[in-house]
Specification:
Blueprint: E1 3-8, H1 14-26, E2 30-35, E3 41-42, E4 48-49, E5 53-54, H2 55-61, E6 69-72, H3 78-83, H4 86-97, E7 101-105, H5 109-114, E8 122-123, E9 139-140, E10 145-148, E11 151-154, H6 160-171, H7 174-184
Parallel strand pairs: 1-2, 1-6, 2-5, 6-7, 7-11, 8-9
Antiparallel strand pairs: 3-4, 10-11
Helix pairs in contact: 1-6, 6-7
Amino acid sequence: MSKVLIPLAQGFEDLEAVTIIDLLRRAGINVTTAGLVTGPITGSRGTVIIPDVTLATILESELVPEYDMIVLPGGQPGATNLENDARVINLLKKMAKTNKYLGAICAAPAVLAQAGLLSKRKATAYPGTLTAENYPDIIVMDDSVVIDDKIITSRGPGTAMDFSLQLIELLTDKQARDKVEAALMRSETGVIK
């Protein structure tokens, strides 16, 4: 069974974090939420999540190599809080060196950029997050989800479901993704008036 670590910082984007956690768990993926601080973490819209553990506990236990992927929810000031935490930057670099998957959505791809992991790569993010001025060596795309080798990025809250389903397919297979997606009852035709 695949294992995914989701660091949660104060001000995370509620819809993104909850969607990622929920859909990955529906696929039978072992998800661990890790708070940057002890205690409940509050999202940018007021949703409160009690993480499974603290990031400090994960780092002290040396469990990092057991994870197949780390996923960063966006939101503000959540993404900035992730970006300003040296432990997160070091963890991302360590995961990249061991050829693990890295996922980031909304404003969180900037955390990957800050860690130097998007240089010469294709990525997407919330509009204005990865600008040519600030990151001239990143190939910024407008797609909902972009995969470049082991790095998966996505645009924002509205793409959280597509992002999560893509993560499921990468960590398991298309059949598992299709099973989770079918149960969600997503309409291909939209709203009928």
